[in-house]
DNA sequence: CGATCCTTTGAAGGACGTCAAGGTCTGTGG
DNA sequence: CCACAGACCTTGACGTCCTTCAAAGGATCG
């Protein structure tokens, strides 16, 4: 269910969306804001829009009938999410923190893609990037140990963060559900990495992390 | 490395490949055969061809540096695999049993896709199908128990098999590496499902399986 | 500054992995 | 056709890594 907090219409281009079509500047972007924890769309809902994170963070997850949750991806500033080829969303998307998104109608994108090969090509390469991420995550979930998973997660977040210290928007529970672990195991793994000098906390919160030794962090990744 | 055993050139159409382009009948399909266990292509090798299983079965997997293996998918008769958007394969593909494949040059496919919107669309929907499979597998690997995983695997194979009894081409090791388990755990889960009347072995081999109660099998899947 | 949520840490339990042994199936060669 | 070798599968005993349960220490927000 879409919780509309702000609906200021902002005439804009879709270039920011990365579809690379400079020729369709007429499409307007809408800006929405979601409070922490609110749902952006639900699994199996019709996929009418494509989203881009303007500020904040989003989690995409699937639930099992008994409440077990698997987060498939986190979407950070600049990321596009909710792009479907079929007409249903395959994940539920929620704002991890207060989040602003841009969104465009999927329909308009598909109309463009039908004639513009560049846009069509970009749709494919975005889907491929998602596939690639999922494939790597399969290996993590199927074959890596707890410490390896946490190290891989931190390496991924570090890679996606420009600043020197990361401010993780998601809770230990989110991290655990992303890595197929429990919060306690995540906490223990982080503690261990901290003891071994890989990272340290910054300030007076456990979500601000600085990587002290990237090479040492890398050494925990058995991939490649 | 491609191990060419048979290279009879067969003039053919690419319709069988399911790209839905009746207008490009000039492209020839090559038929290759791979012996049991031989590599079809390796991870990070240039992706020059797209493959379709004509007979047999193929496993796609990634290896960790210490030999841990995660199988991402099994490709059975009719399945297309090795379709990449980038120019490298992201998995290693091996013949599970003696396998015959058709293959076409990726280049020719890409040339067609650039002008033919139908082919381009099919490339996208095939990639999306792969993505969807990977996403469901994430949930299995991250959040399902051993019995749930094996039940889901059997349900998947059952769904993809037309015959009443399945003849699994892959070993317990393959199944284990697909499900993120060990062979012993897979064996125990199968035994348990057999005790509970979900399935039974057929003939004098443990790879011929008949599902006795599909509804009971379904009941082991906590998804949806 | 109190209430609540989140995180950490310890202790105990359990599901799956490891190790080991024996049974089954398959292919090969006598 | 049988004998043997080797690979594969099953089953049991035991170990271990992760989970569960519990409690206490931060962090956040009113």
What's a quick, concise take on this entry?
Chain A is of the alpha+beta class. Chain A contains six helices and twelve strands. The first copy, chain A, has helices spanning 106-115, 117-143, 146-160, 172-179, 183-195, 214-218, and strands at 9-10, 29-34, 39-41, 49-55, 58-63, 69-75, 80-81, 92-95, 99-105, 165-167, 199-201, 208-211.
Describe this entry's structure for a reader:
The structure is a homodimer. Chain A is α+β, with helices and mostly antiparallel strands and about 220 residues long. Chain A folds into two domains: about 10-140, Jelly Rolls (Sandwich), CATH 2.60.120.10; about 145-220, Winged helix-like DNA-binding domain superfamily/Winged helix DNA-binding domain (Arc Repressor Mutant, subunit A, Orthogonal Bundle), CATH 1.10.10.10. Chain A is about 35% helix and about 25% strand. The first copy, chain A, has helices at about 105-115, 115-145, 145-160, 170-180, 185-195, 215-220; strands at about 10, 30-35, 40, 50-55, 60-65, 70-75, 80, 90-95, 100-105, 165, 200, 210. A five-stranded antiparallel beta sheet of chain A has the order 1-2-9-4-7. In chain A, strands 3-8-5-6 form a four-stranded antiparallel beta sheet. In chain A, strands 10-12-11 form a three-stranded antiparallel beta sheet. In chain A, about 40% of the residues are buried. Chain A binds a DNA duplex (30 and 30 nucleotides) through helix 5.
* CATH fold call of the largest domain in chain A: Jelly Rolls
Measured by residues with Cβ under 8 Å of the partner chain's Cβ, the largest interface is:
A-B, 41 and 41 residues
Proportion in β-strands of chain A: 15-25%
Examine the secondary-structure arrangement and name the CATH architecture of the largest domain in chain A.
Sandwich
Q: Please state the average pLDDT score of chain A.
A: 90
Tell me the number of helical segments of chain A per DSSP (H or I, 4 or more residues long). Answer: 6
Name of the CATH homologous superfamily of the largest domain in chain A:
Jelly Rolls
State the order of secondary-structure elements of chain A, H for helix, E for strand.
EEEEEEEEEHHHEHHEEH
What is the CA–CA distance across the termini of chain A?
41 Å
């Amino acid at each position: 269910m879409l919780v509309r907090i702000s609906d200021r219409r902002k005439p804009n281009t879709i270039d920011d969306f990365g579809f690379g079509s400079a020729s369709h500047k007429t499409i307007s972007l809408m800006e929405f804001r979601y409070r922490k924890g609110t749902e952006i769309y639900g699994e199996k809902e019709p996929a009418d829009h494509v989203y881009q994170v303007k500020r904040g963070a989003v989690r995409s997850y699937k639930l099992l009938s008994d409440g077990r949750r698997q987060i498939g991806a986190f979407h950070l500033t600049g990321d596009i999410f909710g792009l479907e080829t079929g007409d249903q969303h395959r994940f539920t998307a929620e704002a991890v923190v207060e989040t602003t998104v841009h969104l465009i109608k999927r329909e308009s994108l598909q109309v463009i893609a039908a004639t513009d090969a560049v846009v069509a090509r970009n749709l494919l390469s975005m889907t491929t990037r998602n596939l690639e991420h999922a494939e790597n995550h399969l290996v993590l979930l199927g074959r890596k140990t707890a410490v390896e998973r946490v190290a891989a997660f931190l390496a991924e977040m570090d890679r996606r963060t420009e600043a020197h210290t990361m401010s993780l928007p998601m809770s230990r529970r989110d991290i655990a559900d992303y890595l197929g672990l429990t919060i306690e195991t995540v906490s223990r793994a982080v503690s261990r990495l901290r003891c071994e000098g890989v990272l340290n906390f910054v300030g007076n919160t456990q979500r601000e992390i600085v990587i002290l030794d990237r090479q040492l962090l890398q050494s925990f990744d058995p991939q490649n």
